[in-house]
Amino acid sequence: MDSRTAIDHFLNTIAKRPTNAPRTGRLAFALDATMSRQPTWDRASHIQSDMFLAAQDLGGLLVQLIYFRGFRECRASGWTDNGAALARKMANVTCQGGLTQIGRVLKHVQKEHHKAPVHAAIFIGDACEENADELCHLASELGILHVPVFVFQEGSDPTATIAFKEIARLSGGAWAPFDMNSPAQLRDLLKAVAIYATGGRQALQDQCENTSARQRLLEQLKGPTP
């Protein structure tokens, strides 16, 4: 599956999700901040910050920033609708060598959901160094709780691809690759998820841009409601 086909599949998967999203959504935004992502970290940070600012413009979305790096360091911010504050937090994060901690992220999202509903989670990473079966089990539990995980993969590591696709599938979310040479691609996909998590089709209609991934998503939402 090439990048364009995979992205179309990702958007189509979102289109098939229920459209009665709550007006105030909660979106967990998780990042791999280990050393392998250092070469593209600064550019990705700017793109991810754009998503936080876009979420602020929506006014009905709370976001929590989660990242892991170094030796078992996994941190989470508080829930906030202040996109500028989240962008500043993102700017202060630097990459450190260490193994992936995706399992801790999935467990954290599940714990947060039990406190108050989490309507979607995004994970951005390039590697998976954990037991895939254990991650699949955690993803399945999130699927039962109706917490979809939307996974964006940087690079093309085959082990990560297999794990990431399963995490997305079992949780009821979707997977898509992205290329840092095409930053607009990731920016539009992130904004599309943020908008959709806030208010479903209507929010997407109100915020849509003609040349973005949001427009392609909107076109796929024109059919009968699932």
From TrEMBL:
The record, for SUPFAM superfamilies, names: vWA-like
Q: Which domain of life is it from?
A: Bacteria
Designated name of the protein: VWA domain-containing protein
